[in-house]
Design goal:
Chain lengths: 501, 501
């Protein structure tokens, strides 16, 4: 591809055929034919300059060119590495290029059974979307919990306000500046986790029988909620890198076929995609123009691998049509069940609903989280968490690239804890799930993330965990996939034996 | 009435006209004409025996007769007191003797506004149904919370099972023996309070458009939930002592006009009524026979003034049609948001819904409550709480009897923290609410507890609090009611002045 580019440049009589282009083309060929395997380290700039007898500058420019083309990637303090093959936008679009037909959701019993199974702690948690509790500051947070109930005993003896404790709301409003939002604490409503926030949002903005748009593939809990609330679903094609297709969404809004939309704007589950800032801006404007509520789930936003987290869509919301939802379940303590939402123009309705469903969220955990945000070093903790997750994302991606069958493509999330693997079309994700389960490995099959029946050759993998056991599990899963690809899976026993040796 | 009885006995030529009947009749007359005021102490048995020159036995028998007729009551270690006038079953039936017409609920904005206002901590909380936090073992419970998160840090780092922590479920199953239930821990599902439990129950058993029966008057949160879920409401007449009318309910079931029913079986909010054991038995059989789910809210059951608490309807449920709901909000800590339910045959649906709405209830508070139940002296705490609430029930009832206008009747709950006051028909509860609010006093007007527009001359009062301030507030409310009764309320200023002096 690089070579073609160079040749074409030459053929077109463009100004000059650069040496660095030639070098980039040769390296690209070596990557393509497997001389440099996915995930392997490339020679250092100095080494290559010596080997190829070219200047350091030329090598640097060649590497830069390959980096731009996403064939290689620089890793801080480690050098350059061959990127894992990236799932292309087309693949998702192709899989989901259907008509704009909204449908009621009916999650099958098999899917429900698999979802339940995936939270089984006995499995290697490649199918989980839960955080890695070993990386969470539980002990420190629990200490603050003890201290908070000691200093504020009366808060346990009365119901918190439905919208939550003002101190926590104020701390969240402060944190949301990092997401590009300037909000007053009164605009924040505390919930028992992000799932409750999205559920309250859906109930506040939709009537049964109305249609909710989602990016496809979609987090399965949204499917369950939409089904339960008697809503219809419209799956909008999405790009593994940039998320939901704005064009299709705009078309659906113009046609007035949707009454709300849920998106995970940052480090989407299951793609890992980030809606570009420009698209976020457009989304906020688009929904305001059509006066349709946009429910944003930003629960992964703080898990950006970059030093700065990306903004939320809420940051661009001038008219209150964006209902932003999030929680501390991925960054502090899932067991605390503390989440929040910024419901915009739906605030009083959301507050009334919250009061109706469980009066308020528990007080002690709210106070502990507020204290952690104020004095617990949340920023420092996030930096360390992001660093670890960034490293693990690479490790999992490389492990997949090493063991999954030829032709497998992987998304390249820049935050969060999941990635999406597109296997060759002959590999059936359900069969892979069954085979992996026999080996004590959980993986999330693609069809769980849609009602279309698509994504049959896709799986979602967690990157929240890394250990020799996880590495071995990915290897096993890859071998099982390869077996399915060639028509037969290796017998469970033989793989188990290999794992033991 | 006693006199009539004695005379009739004599006229009928019955065996003998007893001296004790004569004495009872004379005392009853003195109560009726106000010589002995409601709530005032009667002479001791010894005193009266001396005064009337009759034997101690005769006085004891006379007092026993008056007690049976609920004109007087014995109070342990204090002697005999004139009972406050009791609201008669008829009054409620009369107010609600409507046809069996189910209606969609629409709680008006005025009602919503009043409900919000009543939780304002600046008001004297006569309108509250919240517990008295000063009587709750908050400090001890918080200490257990601190200790539990220290010894089980990992529970904070992961989601609890949707149905809750097994240890808490086991402790609750043990406690439920006192309610007459023999259950396995697996049958218990933990929720974030009783309101969430009832909401999950309604959603598990009903479809929008179906009809839910309730005893009228009904706790307003049920009205809000039924409205929100798009259900229709059928108000069934209820007796202030024995709760929902079984005959009417059976009729509605035979006519197949209801799809579910919610009742507060013990110390009902707002009547304070208890469904008699025999009726509980019949209820369980009736609903099983018609295969209609019965949602039981038993959140006040543990607040019985008797040494033993009454059984729940669940105790008589052989076929799983009773969904029993409760919480620790009234007995331990409302701010903890820990409740539970025993969903019977709807367990897996309830569990799925719980998972869908907020994944699970927070772990630390679950563990703390489990520890308190196991090792915190919950039984001892309950005994002390019941004793105090029993005393306050009498104090509030007497204060009402002293200051509210002639003709006012009051329920006589044997547990819980609310009572129901039926004022003369000329007193409008909304006007009383407005007038009381001006004096910084919250009271809950009767029409909040119905969609029929009835109960306009009724109010619900909290008995959870007692202090000179509460006593003065009841006096003020009574005077305001008397003023409304005679057509003019005393000016706020003059009453305030009186309160200060």
């Amino acid at each position: 591809m690089v070579e073609t580019h160079a040749r074409r440049a030459a053929a077109n009589g463009q100004a000059k055929f650069h040496l660095y282009e030639d070098i980039a083309a040769r390296l690209a060929r070596m990557i393509e034919n497997g001389a440099y395997r996915h995930g392997s380290r490339l020679p250092s700039i100095r080494e290559l300059s010596r080997q190829m007898r070219v200047s350091i500058n030329t090598v640097m420019t060649a590497y830069g060119l390959l980096e731009n083309m996403q064939l290689i990637e620089a890793r801080p303090q480690s050098g350059y590495f061959v990127s894992s093959p990236l799932a292309e936008p087309d693949s998702a679009l192709r899989a989901n290029g259907r008509s704009l037909e909204a449908k009621p959701v009916e999650v099958g019993s098999r899917a429900l059974q698999i979802i339940r199974t995936l939270s089984d702690p006995a499995l290697v948690p490649l199918g989980a979307s839960a955080p890695n509790s070993a990386l969470l500051p539980i002990v420190r947070l629990n200490r603050m919990l003890a201290q908070q109930v000691r200093s504020h005993p009366l808060e346990s003896g009365s119901y918190a306000p439905a919208a939550g404790h003002m101190r926590l709301r104020a701390e969240i409003a402060k944190r949301l500046v990092a997401s590009g939002c300037t909000l007053s604490p009164e605009e924040v409503v505390i919930t028992s986790g992000c799932v409750e926030a999205v559920s309250l949002a859906l109930q506040a903005v939709c009537q049964p029988g109305q249609t909710v748009a989602v990016a496809s593939p979609v987090y399965w809990t949204f499917l369950n909620s939409i089904q339960w609330l008697g809503l219809n679903l419209l799956e909008i094609p999405a790009c593994p890198r940039t998320g939901i297709s704005l064009d299709v969404l705009a078309y659906a809004l113009r046609r007035k076929v949707i009454h709300a939309c849920i998106i995970i704007s940052n480090f989407n589950n299951p793609f890992g995609s980030v809606t570009p800032e420009e698209n976020k801006h457009k989304l906020a404007e688009l929904f305001a123009k059509h006066e349709v509520p946009l429910i944003e789930d930003d629960v992964y936003g703080d898990l950006s691998f970059a030093p700065e987290r990306p903004p939320s869509v809420k940051a661009f919301d001038k008219h209150g049509w964006v209902v932003s939802c999030s929680s501390f379940s991925k960054t502090l303590a899932p067991g605390y069940r503390v989440g929040w939402m910024v419901p915009g123009r739906f605030r009083s309705k959301v507050e009334a609903l919250k009061r109706l469903f469980n009066i308020a969220t528990a007080s002690p955990t709210q106070l502990a989280v507020a204290e952690f945000l104020a004095n617990g070093g949340y920023g420092r903790h996030l930096r360390s968490l992001r660093r670890i997750y960034a490293r693990q994302m690479v490790q999992v991606r490389d492990a997949v690239a090493r063991s999954f069958p030829q032709g497998t493509r992987i998304t390249r999330p820049e935050g969060g804890t999941v990635l999406w693997v597109v296997m060759p079309e002959t590999v059936d994700a359900y069969r892979l799930y069954d085979a992996a389960l026999e080996h004590g490995i959980g993986i999330a099959p693609g069809p769980l993330f849609t009602i279309s029946g698509d994504f049959r050759n896709c799986i979602r993998l967690s990157t929240a965990f890394w250990s020799p056991e996880v590495e071995a599990a990915i290897k096993t899963a890859g071998e099982l996939a390869a077996g399915l690809n060639s028509g037969h899976a290796p017998a469970a026993d033989s793989v188990r034996q290999r794992l033991r040796t």
